[in-house]
Amino acid sequence: MALVIPESEIEFTAIRAQGSGGQNVNKVSSAVHLRFDICASSLPQAVKDKLLATSDQRINNEGVIVIKAQTSRSQDKNRAEAVARLQEMVDVAAKPVIPRRATKPTRSSQRERVDSKVMGGQTKAARGKVNL
């Protein structure tokens, strides 16, 4: 189930990128800050709660996701990358949690484990001093 995030709920800000890049870094605002308010969005309440419960450093105390994209020299590519990262976060939160079903190890696997431990003990015992 892929949830579509409307463009109207996303706020973009162009900023100057960090790092190397020569004069282009100093002149062009190619990096993008994406801001997405979880509480004010049209996402289902369960997805909102799951997003707010995650301990992701990109989510601030006000419940706003802030994503910075600056890998590309193109502002459009950075914008697309930021939206893709946001979509990935929402998709992970929308995925239902499958409860774990407890299982027992098989009898043969238990026997195999004990046998390997015994073999290890015998190997270590053989490393001791030789009594003549």
How would you describe what is shown here?
By secondary structure, this protein is of the alpha+beta class. The protein has a domain at 7-94: Double Stranded RNA Binding Domain (2-Layer Sandwich), CATH 3.30.160.20. The chain has four helices and three strands; from the N terminus they run E-H-E-H-E-H-H. The chain has a three-stranded antiparallel β-sheet with strand order 1-2-3, covered by helices on one side. The relative contact order is 0.15.
Briefly summarize what is shown:
By secondary structure, this protein is of the alpha+beta class. The chain has 4 helices and 3 strands, in the order E-H-E-H-E-H-H.
What features would you highlight for this structure?
elongated, alpha+beta, Double Stranded RNA Binding Domain, 4 helices, 40% helix, 132 residues, 3-stranded antiparallel beta sheet
Question: How does the SSE layout of this entry go?
Answer:
Blueprint: E1 10-15, H1 23-27, E2 31-37, H2 45-53, E3 64-69, H3 75-94, H4 107-125
Antiparallel strand pairs: 1-2, 2-3
Helix pairs in contact: 2-3
Distance between the termini: 73 Å
How many beta-strand segments?
A: 3
Structural class: alpha+beta
Based on the structure, what is the oligomeric state of the protein chains? single chain
Strand content: 5-15%
What would CATH call the architecture of the domain at 7-94? Answer: 2-Layer Sandwich
How much helical structure, as a percent, in the residues?
Answer: 40-55%
CATH class of the domain at 7-94: Alpha Beta
CATH fold type of the domain at 7-94:
Double Stranded RNA Binding Domain
Strand order of the largest sheet: 1-2-3
Large-scale geometry: elongated
Mean pLDDT, nearest integer?
89
The largest pleated sheet is described as: 3 strands, antiparallel
Rg is 27 Å
